Amino acid sequence: MRILITGGAGFIGHHVASRLLQLGEHLAILDNFNEFYDPEVKRANVRDLLALGPVEVFEVDILDPARLAQAFRAFAPEAVIHLAAWAGVRPSIRQPALYTEVNVTGTVHLLELAKDSGVSCFLFGSSSSVYGGNTKAPFSEQDPVDRPISPYAATKRAAELICHTYAHNFALNICCLRFFTVYGPRQRPEMAIHKFARLMTEDEEIPLFGDGSSRRDYTYIDDIVDGVAAALRLSPRFEIINLGESQTISLLDLIALMERALGRRAKVRHFPEQPGDMHTTYADIDRARRVLGYNPQTPVEAGIGKFTQWFLQQSGK
């Protein structure tokens, strides 16, 4: 299958591309290599992918419909895995217009091209943040998601709704995958686990917002990739599916796990809770198990060990 991965030079994109190359798929990745974090990290990801097998690379912004159309004509994808986005809850509060433009308008550009190009499967990388202030746990795809608490969450939900309209009106096969706090090797440097590991090994303070009781459903990257690969084979008219580990851990317990894995004590400095932060994320994965055969294999205790091993190797610490 000819598969185009937007945001393919990023953390999740790199791992998805690596798996699909191993499966013998014909790949192209599309990324604008922006400066949300050091672009060299993404370029290194691409170099590693090219060492694994043939990959076409398009350096294109999803807000540039003309160049996007050129990429679609050049590659002629049969499937699109749309992972490109401006990510992060807290920065979205500072730049809501940017997040709306990229995450919503950019998605429309891709759906238009998918519609006109005869794409058979469109996977959209959504987020657990769409559940907002939901207090029912675990979070089910049937739960109401009409009260997001950050612009980032609102843009992801808006894009899901737009995906539904394209599936309904244009017979596109679309699956929205709600990722729950993905971590693992090559994780973005500003994300909590990577940031905490760096600060702990540099003997710097970890900023902890709130009292540390907030809980997350941390999902190891290999499990996410399993779900994405299974969704490619599904080709539904329209589906929304949670991809999580379906277990939670508090922030304080996560730090304790990292202390043991790194053999270092964390210096913690408390700050007030931040606007837009959810207290808990927790995935109900019954639908993923039933529809995709999804079966996560890496509990957070094992995943933190794998992450810290990679971190220490790549940082030389």
Describe what this molecule looks like in 3D:
- α1 packs across α8 (221-234), α7 crosses α11 (300-315) and α9 (251-262) packs across α11 (300-315).
- The protein has helices at 11-22, 39-52, 65-75, 89-94, 96-117, 151-170, 192-201, 221-234, 251-262, 286-292, 300-315, and strands spanning 2-6, 26-31, 55-59, 79-82, 121-127, 174-179, 182-183, 205-209, 215-216, 219-220, 238-243, 249-250, 267-271.
- The protein has 317 residues and is of the alpha/beta class.
- The model has no long low-confidence stretch (mean pLDDT 95).
- It has one domain (2-186, 219-245, 283-297): Rossmann fold.
- 45% of the residues lie in helices and 18% in strands.
- It is built from 11 helices and 13 strands.
Helices and strands, in N-to-C order?
Answer: EHEHEHEHHEHEEHEEEHEEHEHH
Q: In terms of per-residue confidence, which ranges show pLDDT below 50 for 5 or more consecutive residues?
A: none
How is the main sheet built? 7 strands, parallel
Number of helices: 11
CATH fold assignment: Rossmann fold
Strand fraction band? 15-25%
Q: Based on CA inertia axes, which overall geometry fits?
A: globular
Any idea what the CATH architecture is? 3-Layer(aba) Sandwich
| Total separate domains | 1
